[in-house]
Amino acid sequence: MSAGDELAALAETLEGRAPAEILAAAAARHPGRIALACSFGAEDCLLVDAIARAGLAVEVFTLDTGYLFPETYALWRELEGRYGLSIRAERAALPVPEPAATPPWEADPDACCEARKVIPLRAALSRLGAWVTGIRREQTPDRAGARVIEWDARFGLEKVNPLAAWTHEQLWAELRRFDVPVNALHQRGYASIGCAPCTTPVRPGEDPRAGRWRGRAKTECGLHLGPVAPKA
Ligand code: SF4
Questions:
Q1: 221: Cβ below 6 Å to ligand 1?
Q2: Tell me: the pLDDT tens digits for 76-135?
Q3: Structure pTM?
Q4: β-sheet bridge partners, residue 63
Q5: What pLDDT was estimated at residue 231?
Q6: Is 45 noted as a catalytic residue in this protein?
Q7: Pocket test for ligand 1, best of 40, 94, 117 (most atoms within 8 A of CB)
Q8: Which of 100, 139, 153, 219 is a good FRET partner for 208, with 20 to 30 A between their CA atoms?
């Protein structure tokens, strides 16, 4: 059986299992080389809770662009305090923009995301055998084919999506069940929360990601773009 077939078979076996079970299986495959890339979305908060409650050896890091909401920085501290773990910051080594210059997210948002998210992520992932994300199939058409574990050809490691099959309703029921801290902005109409300059609330009935890069064609920061075909 090829490595790709083996991973596909494992994904099938793990489909429908609890997030902690999926995380434990992935951690066993990559001892000391697996981490959750936490963006402080509701999904990632639930995964932090699952990792901590099950005592799993899964590191947690975040891409700190420097442009996160104050509420997101507060949640970062709250999660660390609540679960007694450290959420490591990965940051781009970039000069602070001149105050008079066009802000980088206006001048070229793709380049801004590349510099502040994709490049630091690539560096962080280069040390790992697997990364964990909170993506769910129902979030976007790009994510509809996500498996609970798959080969990420873009970054060259395994990608673990324990919540791939979860619905929005399941997610929030579980968050309430375990009283997991979430971003205070969710109460103010923000469904998907990224950097402050590029995130707005959504109106009732709008797509949850409609508030990201509103008014632009951009829908992803580049972290979860394909291809994610199984390794041959
Ligand atoms: Fe820059 Fe906006 Fe991307 Fe954040 S989301 S890195 S501010 S373009």
A1: yes
A2: 999 999 999 999 999 998 877 777 789 999 999 999 999 999 999 999 999 999 999 999
A3: 0.91
A4: 90
A5: 40
A6: no
A7: 117
A8: 153
In sequence order, what DSSP letters do the residues of the chain get, joined into one string? --HHHHHHHHHHHHTTS-HHHHHHHHHHHSTT-EEEE----HHHHHHHHHHHHHT---EEEEE--S-B-HHHHHHHHHHHHHHT--EEEE----PPPPTTSPPHHHH-HHHHHIIIIIHHHHHHHTT-SEEE----TTT-GGGTT--SEEEETTTTEEEE-TTTT--HHHHHHHHHHTT----GGGGGT-SS--BGGGB----TTS-TTTTBTTTSS----SSS-S--PPP-
C-alpha 199: how far from chain center:
16
Question: Among residues 149, 168, 175, which one has the least CA distance to residue 16?
Answer: 149
How many angstroms is it from 230 CA to the middle of ligand 1? 29
Examine the pLDDT at 141 and tell me if it is beyond 80.
Answer: yes
Nearest CA to ligand 1 atom 4: 195
